[in-house]
Write a structure and sequence with these properties.
A two-stranded parallel sheet has the order 1-2. The longest helix is centred in the N-terminal third of the chain and has 31 residues. Helices cover 75% and strands 3% of the residues. It has 157 residues and is an all-alpha fold.
Length: 157
């Protein structure tokens, strides 16, 4: 079997790819949470929340691909299978059925806040062993923080 070789020393590669795999899980789950809410949101702010959720889905999916490809570049097979994501996620789960727009916004604030905190931790973890991965994760973090800000602005009472 062909194996991609990394230029990173094995101990550094292990640290970096663990961070990338965690980011991959969070991003896959974030896209699923946002899409589930997108399909089920109801309420007076339906249209704006519905569209905003799709923006999160698009961002998360783009970042998912970039993170997974970075894993592959480093010689580690990324794992975005449903069972892996379900077992390893730390994001808030979504209840089944219709979701009031205010609840959809609350769930997204929780999920995005968790994802941003975890991405920041990963950035710190990979900064020394792999600044390239740090740069990738910083971009993901900045994008997620913007979504977080926008959902928070709607969540104020």
């Amino acid at each position: 079997m062909y194996q991609v070789k990394s230029t990173l020393p094995d101990p550094d590669r292990k640290v970096v790819t663990e961070a990338l795999q965690g980011a991959l899980v969070d991003l896959v789950d974030l896209s699923l949470v946002a899409k589930q809410l997108h399909w089920n949101v109801v309420g007076p702010r339906f249209r704006s929340v519905h569209r905003q959720l799709d923006e999160v889905v698009a961002s998360a999916r783009e970042h998912t691909d970039n993170v997974a490809e970075r894993c592959s570049t480093l010689g580690v097979s990324p794992d975005g299978r449903a069972g892996t994501v379900a077992a390893d996620t730390s994001l808030t789960t979504v209840a089944g059925g219709w979701q009031q727009d205010t609840e959809a916004v609350r769930v997204m604030v929780d999920c995005l806040g968790t994802a941003v905190r975890r991405m920041r931790d990963r950035c710190a973890t990979v900064a020394t062993p792999d600044p390239v991965t740090e740069d990738l994760l910083l971009g993901v973090t900045a994008d997620l923080e913007e979504h977080y800000w926008m959902f928070q602005a709607q969540h104020q009472r």
